[in-house]
Every structure is written in structure tokens, then in C-alpha cells.
Amino acid sequence: MAGTFISFEGPDGAGKTSVLRAIVARLQPVLGERLLLTREPGGTGNKIAEAIRDLVLDPANTEMDKKTEALLYAASRRQHLVQTILPALAADKVVITDRYVDSSIAYQGGGREIGTDAVTAINDFAIEGMMPTATVYLDIRPEVGLNRIQTTRQDEVNRLDVEALSFHQRVSEAYHALAAKDPERFLIIDAEQNLDAVIADTWAALAPVLDLKD
Asked: What is the dihedral of CA 169, 182, 136, 9, to 10 degrees?
């Protein structure tokens, strides 16, 4: 693939939306139409993946089986990959996705306790080895992230946000294990800093990946 594939990851409350918004605003003048911002579950211009997103994030679907959830995320990811990501990379674009396969391994494998190996296997079938060049991981303690959610975005809480602290602790542990296994791909950012510092550190971490200048 000619393009560059970057994912943004982090526990709930890490500030991904704010950081991504700032990074994209700085990248847009540099990359222009070569920049594609997308997200998971779902995806830019992806009707099927977005329909699955609505299903898995609906707070009303509390009876959803955890393996059903993992399979739905993998199905959404497959559609996102073949319909959105791969064509953009083939067109030499820089693709930035808000969450990718690491999220499933951390949230379903770790948080839901399905097992990281089992969720990795499900997603290996879906992505066929297509991993990001770099993954920006916004690191924050679960209790700090949950406090941010409760104080800043109560009107946007989804089905995963309302899980117990122990769930989010398992998510964090799974993310850290993934980063330890693949330290060259993971760009770890301290997300407990003030927003300006997080944005500056993220830009600096991406600079060599995208050949950026200050």
C-alpha cells in the first residue's frame, strides 16, 4: 500500500476526540485531500459499518452477549477496512482512524474477559494482517478517564462508558500489554497532561512518521 495508516487509541476519557480534532486541523493544510479521517466502529461513508456501530453502542442493548459484541465489532471492522481504508491507502492517502483492532482486543478481550487471544483470532480473520504503521496511544488511568466522562460529557455516554471501574482497569491492562508487545508501533502519550501538552506531544510523536515539520 502506498499510503500511511495511523490509528488513535486510548481508554474512555483519554481525550481522543479533542486531540484528533487539533491534529487534523494542523494536518489538513499540509496534506489537503490526501488526509482521510475515519472512525470505528463505523467508518467514513460506510453505511453497513455505521449500522453496526448504532447496534453495538446503543445503551438499550444491555442484553447483548459479549461474544456477539466482539463478532459485531470484527464485522464492522472488516467492512470499514475493505470499503474505506484499503481504497484510501491505495490512493496514497494518509488514513487516520479513531480506534482500530487494538480497541477490540482491549475492550472485548480484556474488559469483557473473553480473552485477548480469542479476540485477536476473530480480528485476524477480519483484517488479514492489515495493521497501522503507527498507533497513537493516549494513556490515562481508568479512574481519571471515568471522572472526565462524568464531569464533561454526560450527554454522550454510551454502553461502554457505564461499565464498572474494574472493566476499565482490565481495558487499560490489555492496552499496556499490547504496547509492550509492539513498542515500535505504539506511540505512548501521557493523556493526563493539559490538552495543549497532549496535542504537542502527539504532534511530535507523529512528526517522523509523516515527515512533519514544526
From this structure: -40
Over the stretch 167-208, which tens digit does the pLDDT of each residue have? Answer: 999 999 999 999 999 999 999 999 999 999 999 999 999 999
Give the neighbor-by-neighbor strand order of the sheet with 186-190.
Answer: 35-39, 94-98, 4-9, 134-139, 186-190
- Which residues carry a binding-site annotation for ATP? 10-17
From residue 130, alpha-carbon distances to 1, 7, 159 in Å are: 10, 12, 28
Give tens-digit pLDDT for 76-118.
Answer: 999 999 999 999 999 999 999 999 999 999 999 999 999 999 9
- In 3D, which of 183, 82, 193, 172 has the Cα closest to residue 135? 183
Question: Which residues line the annotated binding site?
Answer: 10-17
All structural domains of the chain, each given as residue ranges with its CATH number in brackets, are 4-210 (3.40.50.300)
Determine if the peptide bond prior to 41 is cis (ω within 30°): yes
Residue where the block lists cell 501521557: 190
Give how far Cα 45 sits from Cα of 33, 81, 123, Å: 15, 12, 22
Residue appearing with cell numbers 461474544: 67
